[in-house]
Design goal:
Oligomer: single chain
CATH class of the largest domain: Alpha Beta
Largest sheet: 4 strands, antiparallel
Number of helices: 7
Number of domains: 2
Strand content: 5-15%
Radius of gyration: 31 Å
């Protein structure tokens, strides 16, 4: 039987070779990474794209991973503030026979397809599901459209580069170097206007003398 560290690396490699996009966290450790997760078809969350944070404990696979939605999601079994997930197969009935691919190909899709409002982490979502199912469905669709409908780059470094490369918007305050250049141009313009006034005055004097 392989050691926990070896098993972590093997399971992560298997996940990276699957259809899921994976990005290692800042620690460059196989125990901390992010996964891009597309909500399953025929669910209320269809079309939603979610960034999931995964942390593997030292004793993985004998202890279950920590799974958290970083993209906002409205779901009875997902804490709205922290994104932590309440799912028996992950939190209570986890088995070393499961692996990371199981989580993203089976467990999380089932979570979004079949919520359990009787054991909620989001009481408001559970109450709305019981009280007004149609309003609950509409709330989810609006939430997906607002928070999870746009694709994104999983790598935080790529996001930082995008922000740095963004061009300045029109009307944005000029930088110090630009201000100096503008002031210099204005002084030059004033000098030219002054010279033109002097030329005009000389011409006017010449015309009067001829008269």
């Amino acid at each position: 039987m392989s050691s926990p560290s070896k098993r972590r690396e093997m399971d992560l490699m298997k996940l990276m070779m699957s259809d899921f996009e994976v990005c290692i966290g800042e620690s460059d450790s196989a125990s901390d990474f992010y996964v891009k997760f597309h909500a399953p078809k025929d669910s209320l969350y269809e079309g939603g794209i979610y960034r999931i944070h995964v942390t593997l404990p030292v004793t993985y696979p004998y202890k279950s991973p920590s799974i958290g939605f970083q993209t906002k999601i409205f779901h009875p079994n997902v804490d709205e503030a922290s994104g932590s997930v309440c799912l028996d197969v992950i939190n209570q009935t986890w088995s070393p026979m499961y692996d990371l691919v199981n989580i993203f190909s089976v467990f999380l899709p089932q979570l979004l397809l079949y919520p359990n409002p009787s054991d909620p982490l989001n009481g408001a979502a559970a109450a709305l599901m019981f009280k007004d199912p149609e309003a609950y469905k509409q709330k989810i669709r609006e939430h997906v459209r607002k928070h999870a409908s746009v694709d994104f780059k999983l790598s935080e470094e790529d996001e930082d580069e995008e922000e740095e490369d963004e061009p300045e918007e029109e009307g944005e305050t000029a930088k110090d170097g630009d201000e100096d250049a503008i002031m210099s141009d204005m002084d030059a313009d004033e000098t030219i206007l002054s010279d033109l006034d002097d030329i005009a005055a000389d011409d006017e004097d010449g015309i009067k003398a001829q008269a």
